[in-house]
Amino acid sequence: MIALSDYLILSAIVFCIGLAGIFINRTNIIMLLMCVELILAAVNTNFIAFSYYSSDVAGQIFVFFILTVAAAEVAIGLAILTLMYRNRGSIDVDVTNSLKG
Amino acid sequence: MMDYQFNTADLFFALPELFMIAAIALILLLDLFVSERFQNLTYYLTQSTLAITGYFAFNLIGESAVIFDGTYVLDTIGSYFKVFMMVFSIVALVYSRHYLRAHNLLKGEYFILSLLSVLGMMVMVSAHSMLTIYLGLEIMSLSLYTLIAIARDRAVAVEAALKYFVLGAIASGLLLYGMSMIYGITGSLDIGQIAAFATGANLNSEQVLILNFGLVFLVIGIAFKFGAVPFHMWVPDVYQGAPTSVTMFLSTVPKFAATAMLVRLLIDGLGGLQAYWADLFIILAILSIGLGSLVALMQTNIKRLLAYSTISHIGFILLGFITGVVEGYGAATFYVLAYVLMSLTAFGIIIALNKQGFEADQIVDFRGLSKHSPWFALLMLFVMLSMAGVPPFIGFYSKLFILQQVVSAGYIYLAVAAVVFAVISAYYYLQIIKTMYFDDAEKEITVTAPLDMRIILSINGALILVLGLMPSYWMELAISLF
To answer: Is the ipTM of this structure higher than 0.90?
Structure first.
């Protein structure tokens, strides 16, 4: 039997990897998107674990919505990324940093 | 949960949202099929949709109901917020059209995306479940990301969209993580049940700890959406990079939605933990006011300057929520209203200076405005004095009400710090006035804004003064919402 806390620890680790990836990664924007997906995966794990252990389906339904929204989000993100590449010829984080003040 | 019965009469309470989504679908189809000659059709349909939705929301003021199995709530604050959002969206779109024409961006998509983001904000305002809040937030954000990137040949606009997208996605992730923790400990997504759990007397220390753990993430998510320091990184870049009309929209209407999200999650839901989140808000508020006032001193781009000015206004709004009393929440809501009025006028004037292929976004573009267009210079003077907090403008009273509440709640050091930073920030507001009135223009300034925009901009600017002369009605209204 896997305890609830095991799921929570797993999701906390995945969450931290995602968050650390965002702050450490200084090269590629696609990597940023992957890290965001990791954070959402951690959240989903949390919701499903809580939902299962409290036998309440609302959490699992929430996960369906998160998955759908994440798909829409990535679609928009990649579209913006394509525009970026067309305008600048690169998707490096360094190149895409002209707004400063 | 299982015995939920769908009741058709409930649909009546969601009439504004239902009407809007139907209208969006219709406008989307029409926009596809009507020829270029009727380009204005989409614009007028959008404006009438907003007006009718606002009318429906206005008629529902006073009604209150929790419907759709507790996921949607209709109450006075929600209805008032919706009416305000509709009115300000209409004004923002009137201004936007001039800008879009001047920069060849006038397309149907712009208006449809604006409507969609307003729909998301309405869902947020009326949310009574964490799921609804999240969905409303995402409808709003996804439309706004796209709206910024609508100037797709402009590298800075695309960069701004990308930054907003990445940081917004991270913020959503953090908010969701907090929601999952709150769901785990309370066992419910429903705001009412979360409130019942959080105010319960028999919470053990472990439960309080987990609630607080979730709470921190919720506060981070909310601070991101507001643009409060230290989660403000996106604000200056997005304000500067986005097309000015989008910046205007972004800096005004979504502030109502962010306030509503704060009210739903932290006051309606976790009101029992007010003492805990107020501590976090103190840090956010004082950092926002300080950084917003200091960094703005060095800006040469007026959109970027207004971004930092926004950050410092957000600090004041958050101060109102620290007090933990109804009057404080009312003062914060009044501040949101005042800020949106001022910000709309400021960006409206910037947009009025735009002409075919010319982007007026530097402070030097305002040189000698008083000679060429004394009326717009006067309106800008109103806005700047109001933002600086000079009586009798509305900005003075909004700051006054907040500081009164902060002092009476016992946070005298916060009030003192806020006033000191407000005085510092007066420098850059006065600098703009000096630029308009005492510097000579290098080139001819012609204001090509159409008549409807001039009229609405004048009313908008005049309201800053008029509402400042009778602020008590609006203040009482704001308090009555809580």
So the answer is: yes
